[in-house]
Design brief:
Layout (H helix, E strand, L loop, with lengths): L1 H32 L3 H8 L2 H27 L10 H36 L4 H41 L5
Helix pairs in contact: 1-2, 1-3, 1-5, 2-4, 3-4, 4-5
Length: about 170
């Protein structure tokens, strides 16, 4: 029963993570299409909610992932005996988390600061340039996150199929 609940929360956190990634990308596309700077600032403030969802989802995924490993491999998990797909998934997930918690919000904060300065009519040309650069960087960030997310999903599906065939003892 505990393993079923753990798996349920793992899938739930996966849904939250999907929401934060795709929601953030949709917000970014809305910001790019918006012409009014005050509207851009308003929409930018929605990022904070998606950042919080991302953090909550990653914490739940980490905890339930560790419990899933303990359910599959027992309490004496030997890191060198874990399958290659799982090791790759752990490394990619660590990069995914660090990228999502540090880089994305930093880019959004810097762009928000430039938008605020632009609204206050401070260094208009420099801030317009900065906003374009940050916008390109944020889109690149989301593309990288989507690629990593897709690889993580594929590793999960392929690896889970590998386990379910009874090849893990």
């Amino acid at each position: 029963m505990i393993s079923i609940l753990n798996f349920f929360f793992h899938i739930l956190a996966f849904g939250l993570l999907s929401t934060s990634i795709f929601g953030g990308l949709i917000i970014e596309l809305k910001i790019r299409s918006e012409k009014d700077w005050n509207q851009k600032l308003f929409v930018t403030k929605l990022y904070n909610k998606f950042s919080l969802v991302f953090i909550i989802a990653t914490i739940i995924l980490l905890l339930t992932g560790i419990l899933n490993m303990m359910n599959i491999y027992g309490t004496q998990v030997d890191i060198f005996k874990i399958e290659g797909w799982l090791m790759a998934k752990i490394i990619l997930f660590a990069f995914f988390i660090i990228n999502g918690i540090l880089l994305g919000p930093m880019l959004v904060r810097k762009r928000t600061k430039s938008i605020l300065q632009l609204i206050d009519k401070k260094a208009v040309e420099i801030n317009e340039h900065n906003i374009r650069v940050f916008g390109k960087s944020i889109i690149t960030f989301y593309l990288i996150q989507l690629i990593l997310f897709t690889i993580l999903v594929l590793l999960s599906v392929i690896g889970s199929g590998y386990i379910s065939k009874g090849t893990v003892t």
